[in-house]
C-alpha cells in the first residue's frame, strides 16, 4: 500500500479518487460510510463571489476549483458509472434594504475588477429573473458563473470510482498516528496500517489525530443544519442567497434550505430551533415555500479553521504526513482543487503557488 487516506468525506474520497487515478495503491479508513460526515449535509453551492467570501485568497482558490468542476464531475461520474448532478444555474443574491444594496454594489465592483460577470438587477428586472421572491426584495446581484453540485452523490461516486481503480475502503476509526522508520504507523480499532504516505482528511475531527511532536490541527466543528423541501418544480431559477438564508433549487422541485452556523462542539443533532429558524427565513424570502412539503433535515459539522482557509499540504514535522482538512464552508467548492493538489504533492510536486497560501505550517508545528 502506498497511501492511507484517513476520512471518507468529500475531501478524502475525491483525494482517493485522484490518487487511485494516478495509479497509487490507496486505503481509506473511516468508521462511517463514505460521505457520512459534514459532506452528507452540504448544500453543494459553488459560489466564490457570494457574501462571506471576502478574502481574496479564498475567492481565487474557489474560482480555480470551480473552473475544474465540470470536467472533474464528468471524470468521477464516468469512472463510477453513475450520474452526479452539477447545475450551473448561477446565484441571485438578494438585497432587502439600503445596506444590502451598498454591500452588493461592493461585491459587483469586486467581481468586475476580477473579470467575473455580475449583473445588478432591480425592481421588475429582479422579479423577472426570480419571480418567486417576496415583495420586499429590492434587487438581486446575479452571478451566472456560480453552480451547485450534489455533494452526497459526488462523494459516493468518488468512492465507487476509487474502488474501481483499486482503492480499498476500511470501515474503522483511526486512533493514533506515529512516525515510524519507513513512513507512518496508522493505529486503528482493527490493527495498525503502515504506509509511506498518509493524508489526514478527517474534517471537523482533525485536531484529534496529532502525531507526537506535531501540534493538533486547529480545526473545530461549526454545526450547520440544512432542510430539504419539495416545492413546485421551477419555483426557483437560481441559487437564491438572502439574509442569513440560501435556497438551492434542484430539477425535481427539491429545494435545499441552508444553513445554520452554530458553535456547539461535536453535537450532531438537528434541533427544533434550527429547523424553525430556517423555515421562517426561507418563507419570508420566497413565500411559496411555506406550502412546500417538508422532506428532511440534515446536519453536519463544518471543519472550521481560524483563517477560514483549509490546510492542504505536507507536514513540516512528520515526513510522509499530508493535511487535507479545515475546509469550513467551502469543502464542496474546493474539493477538485484539493484533490488535484494532493495528487501532485504526493508525487513530489510542490511547485503550485496555491500551496503557499494553504500551507499547514501557517498554524504552528503541523
Ligand atoms: C449544512 C452545511 C451546508 C454546507 N454547504 C456547503 C456549500 O454549499 N458549499 C460548500 O462548498 N461547502 C458547504 N459546506 C461545507 C462542506 O460540507 C464541508 O467543508 C465538507 O463537507 C468537508 O468535507 P470533509 O471531507 O473535510 O469532512 P467530512 O465530510 O466531515 O468527512 C470527514 C470524515 O472523517 C471521518 N473521521 C473523523 N475522525 C476519524 C478518525 N479518527 N478515523 C477515521 N475517520 C475519521 C468522519 O467519520 C468523516 O466521515 C456545508 C456544510 C454544512 C454542514
Looking at this protein, list some descriptive labels:
FAD/NAD(P)-binding domain, binds flavin-adenine dinucleotide, 8-stranded mixed beta sheet, D-Amino Acid Oxidase, Chain A, domain 2, 366 residues, 8 helices, 6-stranded mixed beta sheet, alpha+beta, globular, 29% helix
Task: Report what the structure shows.
This protein folds into 2 domains: 3-78 and 151-217 and 306-363, FAD/NAD(P)-binding domain (3-Layer(bba) Sandwich); 88-146 and 220-303, D-Amino Acid Oxidase, subunit A, domain 2 (D-Amino Acid Oxidase, Chain A, domain 2). It is globular and about 70 Å long. It has helices at 10-21, 56-80, 98-113, 123-129, 151-164, 272-285, 335-346, 354-358, and strands at residues 3-6, 26-29, 45-46, 86-87, 91-95, 119-122, 139-143, 147-149, 168-170, 174-180, 183-188, 191-195, 197-200, 220-230, 239-242, 245-249, 254-258, 293-304, 311-314, 321-325. The strands form 4 sheets. Strands 6-7-5-15-16-17-14-18 form an 8-stranded mixed β-sheet, sandwiched between helices. A 6-stranded mixed β-sheet has the order 9-2-1-13-20-19, covered by helices on one side. α1 links the parallel β1 (3-6) and β2 (26-29). It has 366 residues and is α+β, with helices and mostly antiparallel strands. It is built from 8 helices and 20 strands. Bound molecules: flavin-adenine dinucleotide (FAD). The site of flavin-adenine dinucleotide (FAD) has 43 residues, from α1, β14 and β18. Flavin-adenine dinucleotide (FAD) binds at residues 6-12, 29-32, 36-39, 41-45, 173-174, 201-205, 209, 224, 226, 258-259, 300, 302-303, 325, 327-333.
